[in-house]
Specification:
CATH architecture of the largest domain: 3-Layer(aba) Sandwich
Number of helices: 16
Radius of gyration: 25 Å
Structural class: alpha/beta
Strand order of the largest sheet: 16-18-19-14-13-21-22
Shape: globular
Strand content: 15-25%
Distance between the termini: 77 Å
CATH class of the largest domain: Alpha Beta
Helix content: 25-40%
Mean pLDDT: 97
Bound molecules: nicotinamide-adenine-dinucleotide
Largest sheet: 7 strands, mixed
CATH superfamily of the largest domain: Aldehyde Dehydrogenase, Chain A, domain 1
Low-confidence stretches: none
Length: 499
């Protein structure tokens, strides 16, 4: 055990051990073994990283747009060229299969490409002669040091949702990734240094609640970007806001797919399986409930079950469809919902505990699991399970399905499957969810739109990336200017009026 590598922080352009000797194990979920340990920062370690970011800020803020853009471009090129290396890191620590790991990197690359347009995106506005001889213009300026806290399930993509935009806009960053799969963040920060990013602009501090809390209250941190589970997202939002920071705080989800009787059931079944079991269901945009408007349920379930039986589960490096879950604790918690479903009267169509695995038997395996006739009062329906578990709820009408979705505490993503354009249009208008798919099961907006749910899936009003991201990481300054001439003279204590 003592020979295992220890993942260090990355501060001021170099690996840094900090002062804390606390560590957490980082598993290879496909073998169930501890592969590395990661340092868990103390408050002093976090404060030291913020001090570095704060010191790097003035020079980075004043670096020309052209220079910043050219470094971003180098980063984009390096990331694209070496994404295969990063995918291997993701698979080794998260467990997701290589093709899926590449997918998340490519979605993250989209945001880097979007951030390349920062000179255009952050342009101000100019109004000439708003009053005689007076002009008004706006500037968008960076905030300073911003903190980013990310979840385990997208160890590359979620940091990439945030730091490219923050940095392109002239901010400096302290990133606190998930302690469960921390290496991707170090890899990305090292790559950015190689691309020419000055030391101290992107710092990675590993840790748990102690590091997060230190970031949330630090007076030199201007903004916090968070993605994770709903209880923590709420805590982050409230704590950081109380300490005077801008906050974008994205939480958990329970995403429903509404299937109308006219839908193409083969294509719908394909989409349900892909969106339900991809990344072993550990996606905030995974479909976890299918709301089948009768009479389609029996036929749809048969088609889904047939496809699920063809899925291969195993080591993500071996070309399987689905990998393991992140930890044994999480695997056991998800498997526990199979017992809950049974007790609450659901039908177990496929039990994920009965699988053969292409991999080490000690990995954190759970196969795809399918429940029918799930009660909407059951924890299986109400909780975010975050695993390869798909529940079917049968309803009689569109309205009953819509009401169910709208009653959920979550509002991240949803999808309707139908060939009826009028029904789809009505759904997009009536559903209380932030991201809607029409025959698209995982409607993650492209990088030049913004990502974010409603209700307990996002706290506050700041979405991630796209125009909302630019807005979040810059603040507008309005300048009113005149070049004095005699017509501006005279004493008048009244409130200035334009003339
Ligand atoms: P998590 O909330 O456990 O952890 C997220 C981050 O918060 C990690 O960096 C972790 O170290 C930190 N953290 C955990 N407990 C903390 C505490 N008590 N105090 C302070 N910081 C704490 O989430 P996770 O398990 O890593 O990720 C899965 C969750 O993230 C799911 O709920 C999923 O839906 C959600 N998620 C949401 C989105 C979205 O865009 N809405 C995207 C991806 C994941």
């Amino acid at each position: 055990m003592t020979d295992l590598p220890t993942i260090q922080h990355y501060v001021n352009g170099v690996a840094s051990a900090g002062t804390s000797t606390r560590t957490a194990p980082v598993y290879n979920p496909a073998t169930g073994t501890v592969a590395k340990n990661v340092l868990l920062a103390s408050t002093a370690d976090l404060d030291a990283a913020v001090a570095v970011a704060q010191a790097a800020y003035p020079a980075w803020r004043d670096t020309s747009q052209a220079r910043r853009q050219s470094i971003m471009y180098n980063f984009r090129e390096l990331l694209n060229a070496r994404k295969g290396d990063l995918a291997e890191i993701l698979t080794a620590e998260h467990g997701k299969v290589i093709s899926d790991a590449l997918g998340e990197i490519i979605r993250g690359l989209e945001v880097v490409e979007f951030a390349l347009g920062m000179p255009h995106l952050s342009k101000g506005e100019y109004s000439e002669n708003v009053s005689t001889g007076v002009d008004v213009y706006t500037l968008r300026q960076p905030l300073g040091v911003v903190g980013i806290i990310s979840p385990f399930n997208f160890p590359a993509m979620v940091p990439l949702w945030y730091f490219p935009i923050a940095i392109a806009a002239g901010n400096t960053v302290v990133l606190k990734p998930s302690e469960k799969d921390p290496s991707a963040s170090n890899w990305l920060a090292e790559l950015f240094t190689e691309a020419g990013l000055p030391e101290g602009v992107l710092n990675v501090v590993h840790g748990d609640k102690e590091a997060v809390d230190a970031l949330l209250v630090h007076p030199d941190v201007q903004a916090i970007s968070f993605v994770g589970s709903t209880p923590i997202a709420r805590y982050i939002y409230e704590t950081a806001a109380r300490h005077g920071k801008r906050v974008q705080s994205l939480g958990g989800a329970k995403n429903h797919m509404l299937v109308l009787p006219d839908a193409d059931l083969d294509l719908t079944a394909d989409a349900a399986v892909n969106a339900g079991f991809g990344s072993a269901g550990e996606r905030c945009m995974a479909i976890s409930v299918i709301v089948a408007v009768e009479p389609v349920a029996d036929e749809l379930i048969a088609k889904i079950a047939q496809r699920v039986k063809g899925l291969t589960v195993g080591d993500g490096t071996r070309g399987c469809d689905m990998g393991p879950l992140i930890t044994k604790v999480h695997r056991d918690k998800v498997a526990g919902y199979i017992d809950i479903a049974q007790n609450d009267g659901a039908e177990i169509v496929i039990d994920g505990r009965d699988i053969s695995v292409d991999g080490d038997p000690n990995g954190f395996w759970l196969g795809p699991t399918l429940f029918d006739k799930v009660s909407v009062d059951s924890a299986v329906y109400l909780d975010e399970i975050f695993g390869p578990v798909l529940s079917i709820v049968r309803v009689a009408t569109y309205q009953e399905g819509l009401d169910l979705i709208n009653a959920s505490q979550y509002g991240n993503g949803t999808a309707i499957f139908t060939n009826d354009g009028g029904a789809a249009r009505r759904f997009q208008n009536e559903v209380q969810v932030g991201m809607v798919g029409i025959n698209v099961p995982i409607p993650v907006p492209v990088a030049y739109h913004s990502f974010g749910g409603w209700k307990n899936s996002l706290f506050g009003d700041a979405k991630a990336y796209g125009p909302a991201g630019v807005n979040f990481y810059t603040r507008e300054k309005a300048v009113t200017s005149r070049w004095l001439d005699p017509s501006h003279g005279g004493i008048n204590l009244g409130f200035p009026q334009n003339q």
